[in-house]
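Before relying on records like the one below, remember that each one covers exactly one chain. Contacts with other chains, cofactors or solvent are not represented anywhere in the record.
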Amino acid sequence: MSFDFDAVVVGAGAVGLACGRALAKRGLSVLVLEKEPHIGQGVSSRNSEVIHGGLYYPSGSLKARFCVEGRRSLYAFLDSHKVDYRKCGKLVVATDAAEVPRIEAIFQQATANEVEGLEHLTGEQARTLEPGLNAHAAILSPESGVFDSHGYMLALQGEIEDAGGSVVVSTPFERAEPLPGGGFTVTAGGEGGATLTARLLVTAPGLAAQDAAARIAGYPTDRIPAAHFGKGVYFRLTGRAPFERLIYPPPIPGALGTHYRKDLGGQAVFGPDLVYVEAEDYSVDAAKAAEFERYIRRFWPDLPDGALTPDYAGIRPKLHGPGEPQPDFQLRGPDDHGIAGLMALFGIESPGLTSSLAIGEAVADALLDD
């Protein structure tokens, strides 16, 4: 049978757009659906805009593979589309001797992940690079950076549209039903929404991943993972940015921890922390500044009193709750849920932004091979 589109992608954040681009590059007609009035208004717009090197993730995991592959592709993509970025490098810092084994374990993992250019630094060498830093020892990752994530997503949208595809905003995904001979009917657009047909379906709506899967007829409920919302807030520094490179302490359970970055505008931003919440709430409690100050002074003792101001918050689509092991990305295809032509993505949190181009290519390869 003929279809209205070869592929429909649910979600126009970085990962959904990257999936749409990868499918469009292969000559497919693509429609990307986004419930918000603009692209990238969810997880993709409320993060650190860090390009991760790929240091932390377990050997053989999708996070390790996609982060390294995606980062390498991302710099070339940003160059070719003239999207602003700064490859500033990252210091992972041990602030005392007790933290040295933890950063050494990160170095060994990063080496196993084939991250380029890593260096061990003494505290003195780290302070030579970044005066004012409290460092007993450090790891330098020169491949890390910061970038304009919205400019990146606009470039992805442009490639989809240049290939004849469409990105439609203010159009929520309502439901999908597999057709007997393959493909799907997809209903989108809210009350009285339109119904169309597609041969392939990709769901990549970030925080709404579980809800989207539940709206697909026949998707086995026991194959939909539990959803957890991991909220993190950011504070901005009033005054001159103290460091040029990203500064990361050793990770905390479930996340990389509160770190420092100098953004593309030249301002210093600290965050995120991690607090589990039950619903989307993007408020920032100004009283948290005292907690942030105590944490930041471990690696920047000269932080002035009262210099932090509340900035913004983000929520990560986690697949684990407090105290549980942090799982891998989940790209669930027909072998998992039994529905031909469907790829459902879950738990695409950090380093999802860095990994997005690699995730898109993997999704397209899997669907077309299938």
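The longest helix spans residues 62-80.
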